Amino acid sequence: MNLDVPYMPSVKNLTKIFDSIQHAAVPDTFSYEFLKDLGYSSSNDRAILKVLKYLGMLDASGRPQTSYRDFVDHTKTKQVLAARLQAAYDDLYASNKKAHEQTADNLKGWFKSKTGKGDAVALKMATTFKSLAQYADFSNSAPTPPPETEIPATPPPDPETPAPPVLTGESKFGLVYRLEIHLPDTQNIETYRSIFRALREELM
Q: For the chain, which residues make up each domain, given as ranges?
């Protein structure tokens, strides 16, 4: 943002000048003479040239730019001005996206801090910006994005719940048998041998 912020000593004729610009042909050069031809000869109105240059609608020599030609199109006027304000005062909009909705008194402090000017000049800067903003249409300049849909997070697994087994192509399925044998209370070794021999024959 260029800190050499222009201002109108009086904004009384600002909107009238804009209306006159829209009804006039686009000049080769926007000069004091052209402004006088529009019907504004007061020295307070001459600052409009610096304002239009600051907005990028005129080049340094006063030649109308594309945005100036778009501005005189009645279907685009207010939207073009809104876009040029957001571009020229980008630092202001970086600090407050709704700067155009603030009052001049609220904006004065920002201009004073940013430019280092005194209260009187800072207020004129703020008043000029506010008057420009009131002429503009910001309804379509910064559309609000749709709200994001919140995706619920997947709950973590219960630490007490055992994880299911992972089966692979190499997994094998098997059974384990557990046998309980109640042996008779006897001192005859042949009795035990007969029992184990019979079990072996059954299991083999």
A: 14-135
